[in-house]
Design brief:
Helix content of chain A: 40-55%
Number of helices of chain A: 11
Largest sheet of chain A: 3 strands, parallel
Structural class of chain A: mainly alpha
Order of helices and strands of chain A: EHEHHEHHEHHHHEEHH
Oligomer: homodimer
Radius of gyration of chain A: 17 Å
Low-confidence stretches of chain A: 236-248
Strand order of the largest sheet of chain A: 2-1-3
Number of strands of chain A: 6
Mean pLDDT of chain A: 87
Strand content of chain A: 5-15%
Chain lengths: 248, 248
Amino acid sequence: MEPLHKLIGVLGGMGPAATADFMHQVIGNTIAENDQGHVPLLVFCDPTIPDRSTSILDASASSPLPALQDYAQRLERAGSTVIVIPCNTAHHFYESIANSVTIPVLHIVDAVIHQLEEMAPEARTGIAVMATAGTTSSRFYETRLRARGYDCLTLTVEEQALISQVIYEIKASRVAASRVPAIAAARSLRRRGATCLILGCTELASIKETIETELPIVDSTRALALACIRYVVPPACANTLDPAKMIA
Amino acid sequence: MEPLHKLIGVLGGMGPAATADFMHQVIGNTIAENDQGHVPLLVFCDPTIPDRSTSILDASASSPLPALQDYAQRLERAGSTVIVIPCNTAHHFYESIANSVTIPVLHIVDAVIHQLEEMAPEARTGIAVMATAGTTSSRFYETRLRARGYDCLTLTVEEQALISQVIYEIKASRVAASRVPAIAAARSLRRRGATCLILGCTELASIKETIETELPIVDSTRALALACIRYVVPPACANTLDPAKMIA
Protein backbone atom coordinates (compact mmCIF):
# COMPACT_ATOMS: atom_id res chain seq x y z
CA MET A 1 0.00 0.00 0.00
CA GLU A 2 1.44 3.35 -1.05
CA PRO A 3 2.33 5.82 1.69
CA LEU A 4 0.36 9.06 1.67
CA HIS A 5 2.41 12.18 1.08
CA LYS A 6 2.64 12.89 4.81
CA LEU A 7 0.75 10.93 7.46
CA ILE A 8 1.58 11.12 11.15
CA GLY A 9 1.20 7.78 12.91
CA VAL A 10 0.37 8.29 16.59
CA LEU A 11 1.26 5.54 19.05
CA GLY A 12 -1.29 6.43 21.72
CA GLY A 13 -3.67 5.23 24.37
CA MET A 14 -1.22 5.89 27.21
CA GLY A 15 -3.64 7.04 28.54
CA PRO A 16 -6.46 7.40 26.03
CA ALA A 17 -7.55 10.82 27.33
CA ALA A 18 -3.99 12.12 26.88
CA THR A 19 -4.11 10.92 23.26
CA ALA A 20 -7.41 12.70 22.60
CA ASP A 21 -5.97 15.84 24.24
CA PHE A 22 -2.92 15.59 22.00
CA MET A 23 -5.23 15.43 18.96
CA HIS A 24 -7.08 18.52 20.20
CA GLN A 25 -3.71 20.29 20.53
CA VAL A 26 -2.77 19.38 16.95
CA ILE A 27 -6.17 20.44 15.61
CA GLY A 28 -6.42 23.63 17.68
CA ASN A 29 -2.92 24.83 16.91
CA THR A 30 -3.25 24.02 13.21
CA ILE A 31 -6.28 26.25 12.83
CA ALA A 32 -4.65 29.02 14.81
CA GLU A 33 -1.33 28.99 12.97
CA ASN A 34 -2.25 28.19 9.42
CA ASP A 35 -5.51 27.20 7.73
CA GLN A 36 -3.61 25.33 5.02
CA GLY A 37 -1.60 23.30 7.50
CA HIS A 38 -3.92 20.33 7.77
CA VAL A 39 -2.42 17.44 9.68
CA PRO A 40 -3.60 13.95 8.73
CA LEU A 41 -3.24 11.64 11.72
CA LEU A 42 -3.50 7.86 12.06
CA VAL A 43 -3.92 7.16 15.74
CA PHE A 44 -3.46 3.85 17.55
CA CYS A 45 -5.25 4.28 20.86
CA ASP A 46 -5.10 1.12 22.99
CA PRO A 47 -5.72 1.67 26.70
CA THR A 48 -4.72 -1.94 27.45
CA ILE A 49 -0.97 -1.38 26.84
CA PRO A 50 0.83 -2.49 30.05
CA ASP A 51 1.86 0.34 32.40
CA ARG A 52 5.15 1.96 31.33
CA SER A 53 6.38 3.22 34.72
CA THR A 54 5.68 -0.11 36.42
CA SER A 55 7.62 -1.96 33.75
CA ILE A 56 10.64 0.38 34.07
CA LEU A 57 10.71 0.20 37.87
CA ASP A 58 9.88 -3.51 38.26
CA ALA A 59 11.66 -5.91 35.89
CA SER A 60 9.18 -8.71 36.66
CA ALA A 61 6.15 -6.69 35.42
CA SER A 62 4.71 -7.13 31.89
CA SER A 63 6.55 -5.06 29.31
CA PRO A 64 4.64 -2.72 26.99
CA LEU A 65 7.38 -3.14 24.34
CA PRO A 66 5.89 -5.99 22.26
CA ALA A 67 2.59 -4.08 21.91
CA LEU A 68 4.41 -0.81 21.14
CA GLN A 69 6.50 -2.45 18.39
CA ASP A 70 3.46 -4.24 16.96
CA TYR A 71 1.41 -1.03 16.83
CA ALA A 72 4.31 0.96 15.35
CA GLN A 73 4.54 -1.62 12.56
CA ARG A 74 0.78 -1.46 11.96
CA LEU A 75 1.00 2.33 11.69
CA GLU A 76 3.81 2.00 9.14
CA ARG A 77 1.91 -0.68 7.25
CA ALA A 78 -1.12 1.60 6.95
CA GLY A 79 0.96 4.33 5.31
CA SER A 80 2.33 6.52 8.11
CA THR A 81 5.41 8.50 7.10
CA VAL A 82 6.53 9.35 10.64
CA ILE A 83 5.57 8.12 14.13
CA VAL A 84 5.05 10.14 17.31
CA ILE A 85 4.37 8.85 20.84
CA PRO A 86 2.27 11.21 23.01
CA CYS A 87 3.50 9.52 26.22
CA ASN A 88 6.78 10.58 27.77
CA THR A 89 7.38 7.44 29.81
CA ALA A 90 7.06 5.21 26.72
CA HIS A 91 10.19 6.94 25.38
CA HIS A 92 12.19 4.69 27.70
CA PHE A 93 11.60 2.16 24.88
CA TYR A 94 12.35 4.66 22.10
CA GLU A 95 15.34 2.92 20.49
CA SER A 96 13.60 -0.49 20.42
CA ILE A 97 10.46 1.02 18.89
CA ALA A 98 12.43 3.09 16.35
CA ASN A 99 14.45 0.01 15.34
CA SER A 100 11.27 -1.99 14.67
CA VAL A 101 10.12 0.26 11.79
CA THR A 102 11.73 1.84 8.72
CA ILE A 103 10.05 5.26 9.08
CA PRO A 104 11.42 7.91 11.48
CA VAL A 105 10.09 8.15 15.02
CA LEU A 106 10.07 11.70 16.35
CA HIS A 107 11.42 11.90 19.93
CA ILE A 108 9.33 13.97 22.33
CA VAL A 109 12.48 15.42 23.96
CA ASP A 110 13.60 16.83 20.59
CA ALA A 111 10.20 18.52 20.27
CA VAL A 112 10.62 19.90 23.81
CA ILE A 113 14.11 21.20 23.00
CA HIS A 114 12.68 23.05 19.99
CA GLN A 115 10.22 24.85 22.30
CA LEU A 116 12.91 25.41 24.91
CA GLU A 117 15.04 27.22 22.32
CA GLU A 118 12.08 29.45 21.44
CA MET A 119 10.72 30.11 24.93
CA ALA A 120 13.86 30.21 27.06
CA PRO A 121 16.86 30.77 24.78
CA GLU A 122 19.02 31.84 27.76
CA ALA A 123 18.40 28.72 29.85
CA ARG A 124 21.25 26.20 29.57
CA THR A 125 21.43 24.96 33.16
CA GLY A 126 18.76 24.27 35.76
CA ILE A 127 16.30 22.60 33.39
CA ALA A 128 13.77 20.89 35.68
CA VAL A 129 11.80 17.99 34.20
CA MET A 130 8.57 17.17 36.03
CA ALA A 131 7.81 13.57 35.09
CA THR A 132 6.76 10.11 36.29
CA ALA A 133 9.17 8.10 38.43
CA GLY A 134 9.63 5.85 35.39
CA THR A 135 10.70 8.72 33.13
CA THR A 136 13.00 10.17 35.81
CA SER A 137 14.63 6.81 36.49
CA SER A 138 15.04 6.15 32.75
CA ARG A 139 17.03 9.44 32.43
CA PHE A 140 16.32 9.87 28.70
CA TYR A 141 15.42 13.55 29.18
CA GLU A 142 18.74 14.19 30.95
CA THR A 143 20.79 12.28 28.35
CA ARG A 144 19.11 13.86 25.35
CA LEU A 145 19.20 17.37 26.81
CA ARG A 146 22.85 16.98 27.79
CA ALA A 147 23.74 15.91 24.23
CA ARG A 148 22.34 19.28 23.12
CA GLY A 149 24.25 21.27 25.72
CA TYR A 150 21.66 21.53 28.50
CA ASP A 151 22.11 20.64 32.17
CA CYS A 152 19.17 19.23 34.11
CA LEU A 153 18.39 19.73 37.78
CA THR A 154 18.17 16.28 39.39
CA LEU A 155 14.87 15.89 41.29
CA THR A 156 15.10 15.24 45.03
CA VAL A 157 13.20 12.26 46.46
CA GLU A 158 10.68 14.70 47.97
CA GLU A 159 10.14 16.53 44.67
CA GLN A 160 9.63 13.25 42.80
CA ALA A 161 7.11 12.13 45.43
CA LEU A 162 5.18 15.41 45.05
CA ILE A 163 5.15 15.16 41.24
CA SER A 164 4.09 11.50 41.32
CA GLN A 165 1.25 12.50 43.63
CA VAL A 166 0.16 15.24 41.21
CA ILE A 167 0.08 12.73 38.33
CA TYR A 168 -1.78 10.21 40.47
CA GLU A 169 -4.47 12.75 41.44
CA ILE A 170 -4.91 13.92 37.83
CA LYS A 171 -5.20 10.34 36.54
CA ALA A 172 -7.95 9.83 39.15
CA SER A 173 -9.70 13.03 37.87
CA ARG A 174 -9.02 14.86 41.15
CA VAL A 175 -7.56 18.01 39.61
CA ALA A 176 -8.28 20.12 42.72
CA ALA A 177 -6.28 17.71 44.90
CA SER A 178 -3.31 18.06 42.53
CA ARG A 179 -2.91 21.80 43.28
CA VAL A 180 -1.07 21.69 46.59
CA PRO A 181 1.63 19.17 45.60
CA ALA A 182 2.02 20.87 42.18
CA ILE A 183 2.67 24.26 43.76
CA ALA A 184 5.01 22.73 46.37
CA ALA A 185 7.05 20.91 43.71
CA ALA A 186 7.39 24.02 41.52
CA ARG A 187 8.44 26.17 44.53
CA SER A 188 11.03 23.66 45.63
CA LEU A 189 12.50 23.46 42.10
CA ARG A 190 12.60 27.24 41.82
CA ARG A 191 14.33 27.55 45.23
CA ARG A 192 17.00 25.10 44.10
CA GLY A 193 17.79 27.11 40.98
CA ALA A 194 15.46 25.85 38.24
CA THR A 195 15.47 28.20 35.23
CA CYS A 196 12.69 26.45 33.31
CA LEU A 197 10.04 23.82 34.05
CA ILE A 198 9.35 21.03 31.57
CA LEU A 199 6.00 19.27 31.93
CA GLY A 200 7.44 15.89 30.97
CA CYS A 201 4.24 13.88 31.40
CA THR A 202 1.09 14.26 29.30
CA GLU A 203 -1.02 14.23 32.48
CA LEU A 204 0.67 17.42 33.69
CA ALA A 205 -0.65 19.75 30.95
CA SER A 206 -3.47 20.88 33.25
CA ILE A 207 -1.16 22.22 36.00
CA LYS A 208 0.30 24.97 33.83
CA GLU A 209 -2.20 27.52 35.17
CA THR A 210 -1.94 26.18 38.71
CA ILE A 211 1.69 26.40 39.62
CA GLU A 212 2.00 30.15 39.99
CA THR A 213 5.56 30.61 38.81
CA GLU A 214 7.27 33.14 36.58
CA LEU A 215 9.55 30.44 35.20
CA PRO A 216 9.01 29.54 31.54
CA ILE A 217 7.05 26.29 31.25
CA VAL A 218 7.37 23.90 28.29
CA ASP A 219 4.43 21.50 27.95
CA SER A 220 5.70 18.33 26.22
CA THR A 221 2.27 17.46 24.74
CA ARG A 222 1.98 20.87 23.14
CA ALA A 223 5.61 20.72 21.97
CA LEU A 224 4.93 17.38 20.26
CA ALA A 225 1.73 18.72 18.64
CA LEU A 226 3.63 21.74 17.27
CA ALA A 227 6.36 19.45 15.93
CA CYS A 228 3.68 17.47 14.03
CA ILE A 229 2.33 20.67 12.51
CA ARG A 230 5.84 21.77 11.47
CA TYR A 231 6.32 18.35 9.86
CA VAL A 232 3.18 18.70 7.72
CA VAL A 233 2.94 22.42 6.97
CA PRO A 234 4.72 23.35 3.73
CA PRO A 235 8.16 24.88 4.53
CA ALA A 236 7.17 28.21 3.00
CA CYS A 237 4.41 28.61 5.60
CA ALA A 238 6.38 27.48 8.63
CA ASN A 239 8.96 29.93 9.88
CA THR A 240 10.45 27.47 12.38
CA LEU A 241 10.67 24.33 10.26
CA ASP A 242 13.89 22.41 10.67
CA PRO A 243 13.39 18.70 9.93
CA ALA A 244 16.96 17.91 11.01
CA LYS A 245 16.10 19.06 14.51
CA MET A 246 12.70 17.40 14.56
CA ILE A 247 13.49 13.88 13.48
CA ALA A 248 15.73 11.98 15.83
CA MET B 1 -0.35 -8.88 9.48
CA GLU B 2 -2.63 -10.70 11.93
CA PRO B 3 -5.77 -8.89 13.08
CA LEU B 4 -5.95 -8.11 16.78
CA HIS B 5 -8.75 -9.79 18.68
CA LYS B 6 -10.96 -6.73 18.39
CA LEU B 7 -9.83 -3.38 17.01
CA ILE B 8 -12.21 -0.62 16.00
CA GLY B 9 -11.08 1.27 12.91
CA VAL B 10 -12.39 4.83 12.96
CA LEU B 11 -12.78 6.65 9.66
CA GLY B 12 -12.57 10.18 11.03
CA GLY B 13 -11.44 13.74 10.52
CA MET B 14 -14.86 14.94 9.35
CA GLY B 15 -14.30 17.24 11.18
CA PRO B 16 -11.24 16.48 13.30
CA ALA B 17 -12.74 17.96 16.48
CA ALA B 18 -15.81 15.71 16.07
CA THR B 19 -13.47 12.71 15.86
CA ALA B 20 -11.63 13.70 19.05
CA ASP B 21 -15.02 14.23 20.76
CA PHE B 22 -16.09 10.77 19.62
CA MET B 23 -12.93 9.33 21.19
CA HIS B 24 -13.69 11.15 24.43
CA GLN B 25 -17.21 9.65 24.36
CA VAL B 26 -15.81 6.14 23.91
CA ILE B 27 -13.23 6.65 26.67
CA GLY B 28 -15.59 8.38 29.11
CA ASN B 29 -18.43 5.90 28.71
CA THR B 30 -16.09 2.90 28.95
CA ILE B 31 -14.82 3.99 32.35
CA ALA B 32 -18.32 4.74 33.54
CA GLU B 33 -19.90 1.49 32.41
CA ASN B 34 -17.23 -1.12 32.88
CA ASP B 35 -13.58 -0.90 33.91
CA GLN B 36 -12.79 -4.07 31.95
CA GLY B 37 -14.37 -2.77 28.76
CA HIS B 38 -11.26 -1.29 27.21
CA VAL B 39 -11.77 -0.21 23.62
CA PRO B 40 -8.73 -0.25 21.33
CA LEU B 41 -9.19 2.28 18.53
CA LEU B 42 -7.27 2.89 15.32
CA VAL B 43 -8.29 6.33 14.12
CA PHE B 44 -7.80 7.83 10.67
CA CYS B 45 -8.20 11.56 11.15
CA ASP B 46 -7.72 13.47 7.91
CA PRO B 47 -9.23 16.96 7.87
CA THR B 48 -8.51 17.28 4.14
CA ILE B 49 -11.25 14.85 3.02
CA PRO B 50 -13.49 16.79 0.56
CA ASP B 51 -16.73 18.14 2.04
CA ARG B 52 -19.47 15.50 2.15
CA SER B 53 -22.54 17.72 1.97
CA THR B 54 -21.14 19.73 -0.95
CA SER B 55 -20.44 16.55 -2.86
CA ILE B 56 -23.96 15.19 -2.30
CA LEU B 57 -25.66 18.46 -3.28
CA ASP B 58 -23.37 19.37 -6.19
CA ALA B 59 -22.41 16.58 -8.58
CA SER B 60 -19.56 18.63 -10.03
CA ALA B 61 -17.76 18.98 -6.66
CA SER B 62 -14.86 16.68 -5.61
CA SER B 63 -16.08 13.43 -4.12
CA PRO B 64 -14.77 12.25 -0.74
CA LEU B 65 -15.37 8.61 -1.78
CA PRO B 66 -11.88 7.71 -3.12
CA ALA B 67 -10.27 8.96 0.11
CA LEU B 68 -12.88 7.22 2.27
CA GLN B 69 -12.34 3.88 0.49
CA ASP B 70 -8.55 4.25 0.63
CA TYR B 71 -8.59 5.01 4.37
CA ALA B 72 -11.04 2.18 5.09
CA GLN B 73 -8.66 -0.21 3.34
CA ARG B 74 -5.70 1.15 5.32
CA LEU B 75 -7.63 0.61 8.56
CA GLU B 76 -8.37 -2.99 7.55
CA ARG B 77 -4.78 -3.53 6.49
CA ALA B 78 -3.54 -2.39 9.91
CA GLY B 79 -5.70 -5.01 11.66
CA SER B 80 -9.07 -3.38 12.34
CA THR B 81 -11.88 -5.90 12.85
CA VAL B 82 -14.74 -3.43 12.33
CA ILE B 83 -15.00 0.12 10.97
CA VAL B 84 -17.08 3.02 12.27
CA ILE B 85 -17.56 6.47 10.72
CA PRO B 86 -18.17 9.29 13.23
CA CYS B 87 -19.71 11.52 10.55
CA ASN B 88 -23.36 11.16 9.63
CA THR B 89 -23.17 12.78 6.21
CA ALA B 90 -20.41 10.39 5.09
CA HIS B 91 -22.97 7.56 5.45
CA HIS B 92 -24.35 8.70 2.10
CA PHE B 93 -21.38 6.68 0.76
CA TYR B 94 -21.90 3.79 3.19
CA GLU B 95 -22.49 0.99 0.66
CA SER B 96 -19.48 1.96 -1.48
CA ILE B 97 -17.23 2.13 1.59
CA ALA B 98 -18.54 -1.16 3.01
CA ASN B 99 -18.02 -2.88 -0.35
CA SER B 100 -14.39 -1.76 -0.50
CA VAL B 101 -13.35 -3.78 2.58
CA THR B 102 -13.92 -7.33 3.87
CA ILE B 103 -14.57 -6.35 7.52
CA PRO B 104 -17.97 -5.10 8.68
CA VAL B 105 -18.75 -1.39 8.73
CA LEU B 106 -21.11 -0.42 11.53
CA HIS B 107 -23.84 1.97 10.32
CA ILE B 108 -24.44 5.00 12.55
CA VAL B 109 -28.22 4.77 12.03
CA ASP B 110 -28.21 1.22 13.45
CA ALA B 111 -26.42 2.55 16.53
CA VAL B 112 -29.03 5.34 16.77
CA ILE B 113 -31.89 2.80 16.48
CA HIS B 114 -30.38 0.83 19.38
CA GLN B 115 -30.52 3.97 21.57
CA LEU B 116 -33.98 4.85 20.27
CA GLU B 117 -35.27 1.46 21.42
CA GLU B 118 -33.81 2.06 24.88
CA MET B 119 -34.71 5.71 25.33
CA ALA B 120 -38.05 5.99 23.52
CA PRO B 121 -39.50 2.48 23.12
CA GLU B 122 -42.99 3.92 22.43
CA ALA B 123 -41.93 6.22 19.59
CA ARG B 124 -42.63 4.67 16.17
CA THR B 125 -43.79 7.75 14.24
CA GLY B 126 -42.66 11.37 14.31
CA ILE B 127 -38.93 10.63 14.48
CA ALA B 128 -37.26 13.97 13.67
CA VAL B 129 -33.70 13.82 12.38
CA MET B 130 -31.74 17.08 12.73
CA ALA B 131 -28.96 16.84 10.17
CA THR B 132 -27.00 18.57 7.41
CA ALA B 133 -28.74 19.31 4.12
CA GLY B 134 -26.57 16.57 2.62
CA THR B 135 -27.77 13.92 5.09
CA THR B 136 -31.39 15.02 4.72
CA SER B 137 -31.23 14.97 0.93
CA SER B 138 -29.51 11.55 0.97
CA ARG B 139 -32.46 10.09 2.98
CA PHE B 140 -30.45 7.21 4.47
CA TYR B 141 -31.84 7.90 7.96
CA GLU B 142 -35.40 7.73 6.64
CA THR B 143 -34.78 4.55 4.61
CA ARG B 144 -32.98 2.70 7.38
CA LEU B 145 -35.45 3.75 10.06
CA ARG B 146 -38.41 2.80 7.84
CA ALA B 147 -36.90 -0.67 7.28
CA ARG B 148 -37.03 -1.11 11.04
CA GLY B 149 -40.64 0.08 11.34
CA TYR B 150 -40.13 3.77 12.15
CA ASP B 151 -41.68 6.78 10.42
CA CYS B 152 -39.70 9.99 10.12
CA LEU B 153 -41.03 13.51 10.14
CA THR B 154 -39.88 15.21 6.91
CA LEU B 155 -38.14 18.52 7.65
CA THR B 156 -39.69 21.67 6.20
CA VAL B 157 -37.45 24.00 4.18
CA GLU B 158 -37.52 26.45 7.12
CA GLU B 159 -36.51 23.78 9.64
CA GLN B 160 -33.65 22.60 7.43
CA ALA B 161 -32.44 26.19 7.05
CA LEU B 162 -32.48 26.66 10.85
CA ILE B 163 -30.59 23.39 11.45
CA SER B 164 -28.03 24.19 8.75
CA GLN B 165 -27.50 27.55 10.42
CA VAL B 166 -26.96 25.86 13.81
CA ILE B 167 -24.33 23.55 12.28
CA TYR B 168 -22.67 26.47 10.50
CA GLU B 169 -22.42 28.52 13.72
CA ILE B 170 -21.02 25.57 15.69
CA LYS B 171 -18.43 24.78 13.02
CA ALA B 172 -17.36 28.44 13.26
CA SER B 173 -17.07 28.07 17.10
CA ARG B 174 -19.98 30.47 17.66
CA VAL B 175 -21.93 28.24 20.05
CA ALA B 176 -23.88 31.17 21.54
CA ALA B 177 -25.14 32.16 18.07
CA SER B 178 -26.42 28.62 17.54
CA ARG B 179 -28.92 28.84 20.43
CA VAL B 180 -31.73 30.81 18.79
CA PRO B 181 -32.00 28.72 15.58
CA ALA B 182 -31.57 25.48 17.60
CA ILE B 183 -34.47 26.33 19.91
CA ALA B 184 -36.62 27.49 16.98
CA ALA B 185 -35.99 24.27 15.04
CA ALA B 186 -36.80 22.05 18.05
CA ARG B 187 -40.01 24.00 18.79
CA SER B 188 -41.18 23.79 15.20
CA LEU B 189 -40.55 20.02 15.11
CA ARG B 190 -42.38 19.53 18.40
CA ARG B 191 -45.35 21.60 17.16
CA ARG B 192 -45.57 19.42 14.05
CA GLY B 193 -45.75 16.21 16.10
CA ALA B 194 -42.15 15.07 16.66
CA THR B 195 -41.96 12.35 19.33
CA CYS B 196 -38.17 12.18 19.49
CA LEU B 197 -35.24 14.28 18.25
CA ILE B 198 -32.22 12.63 16.69
CA LEU B 199 -29.04 14.72 16.60
CA GLY B 200 -27.97 13.33 13.24
CA CYS B 201 -24.81 15.41 12.85
CA THR B 202 -21.73 15.16 15.07
CA GLU B 203 -21.61 18.96 15.32
CA LEU B 204 -25.00 18.99 17.05
CA ALA B 205 -23.94 17.17 20.25
CA SER B 206 -23.48 20.51 22.04
CA ILE B 207 -27.09 21.67 21.54
CA LYS B 208 -28.56 18.92 23.75
CA GLU B 209 -28.62 21.20 26.79
CA THR B 210 -29.73 24.20 24.74
CA ILE B 211 -32.94 23.15 23.08
CA GLU B 212 -35.22 23.12 26.12
CA THR B 213 -37.53 20.30 25.14
CA GLU B 214 -39.03 17.38 27.04
CA LEU B 215 -38.72 15.18 23.96
CA PRO B 216 -36.21 12.33 24.21
CA ILE B 217 -32.99 13.23 22.35
CA VAL B 218 -30.70 10.64 20.77
CA ASP B 219 -27.18 11.94 20.10
CA SER B 220 -25.74 9.97 17.16
CA THR B 221 -22.10 10.46 18.28
CA ARG B 222 -22.85 9.04 21.72
CA ALA B 223 -24.91 6.21 20.16
CA LEU B 224 -21.97 5.25 17.95
CA ALA B 225 -19.54 5.38 20.91
CA LEU B 226 -21.82 3.08 22.95
CA ALA B 227 -22.08 0.67 20.00
CA CYS B 228 -18.25 0.50 19.92
CA ILE B 229 -18.16 -0.33 23.63
CA ARG B 230 -20.81 -3.05 23.19
CA TYR B 231 -18.72 -4.50 20.35
CA VAL B 232 -15.60 -4.79 22.52
CA VAL B 233 -16.91 -5.54 26.02
CA PRO B 234 -17.16 -9.30 26.63
CA PRO B 235 -20.79 -10.45 26.20
CA ALA B 236 -21.00 -11.51 29.84
CA CYS B 237 -20.39 -7.91 30.93
CA ALA B 238 -22.66 -6.20 28.42
CA ASN B 239 -26.36 -6.56 29.06
CA THR B 240 -27.36 -5.02 25.77
CA LEU B 241 -24.97 -6.73 23.39
CA ASP B 242 -26.53 -7.89 20.16
CA PRO B 243 -24.00 -8.06 17.32
CA ALA B 244 -26.72 -8.84 14.78
CA LYS B 245 -28.30 -5.49 15.50
CA MET B 246 -25.03 -3.61 15.60
CA ILE B 247 -23.38 -4.72 12.41
CA ALA B 248 -25.19 -3.70 9.28
